[in-house]
Amino acid sequence: MTVGFLDPCGINLPHTHPRATEINFLVSGEFQAGFFSENGARFLGSIIKPGMVTVFPQGAIHFEMNVACTPAMFVAAFNSEDPGVQTTASTFFGLPADQVSFALNISNIRTVEDLAAHLPSNPGLATTLSECRQR
Q1: Using CA atoms, how far apart are residues 19 and 61, in angstroms rounded to an integer?
Q2: Which SS3 state, helix, strand or coil, does residue 95 take?
Q3: What letter would DSSP give residue 108?
C-alpha cells in the first residue's frame, strides 16, 4: 500500500504493474483516470472524486491526472508485495529506434528527433492541461 500526492494538473504517467492489480482510493482532489486492459480493448475512463475508488487490472496500461485546482492525495493498494511498475512511454521509447519505427509503421526513424517529426499533436491533452493551468 502507498500514499501518493499529485499537484494540481499533475499526472501519474501511463504505466503498468506487471505483477498486481491496483485499487486506488482518492482522498482529495479530482482524478481523470483510465486504462486499456489489452490489445483491441476499448479505453475505460472516468472522473474520480474524493471517497471514490477505481481498480486497474494487473498489467493494464493506466494513468491518473489531477484535474482539480488543489493538490490530490490518494491511497493505492496492490494484491502483491512486489507489484512492479513499468512506465509505458519510457519503456517503449527505450527500445532500439528501428524497432520503434517498425512498431509505429514509420520508416527511416533513427533518432528521437526523427520520431517526433511523425507524431501527431494531442489537442485534447493540450487543451485539458492548458485549461487546468489557467484555473
Answers
A1: 13
A2: coil
A3: S
Helix %, strand %, coil % of the chain (to 5): 20, 35, 40
8-state DSSP, 120 = P
DSSP labels for 17-39?
-TT--EEEEEEES-EEEEEE-ST
SS3 128: helix
Residue 65 C-alpha cell reads as: 491526472
Cβ atoms of 25 and 16 within 8 Å: the answer is no
Nearest partner of 69 among 4, 3, 25, 134, judged by Cα: 134
Structural contact between residues 23 and 55, judged by C-beta atoms closer than 8 angstroms: yes
Residues 6+ apart with CB under 8 A from 87: 13, 14, 15
Residue-wise pLDDT tens digits, 17-75: 999 999 999 999 999 999 987 888 889 999 999 999 999 999 999 999 999 999 999 99
| Residues 15, 86 contacting (CB under 8 angstroms) | yes
Predicted TM-score (pTM) of this structure: 0.79
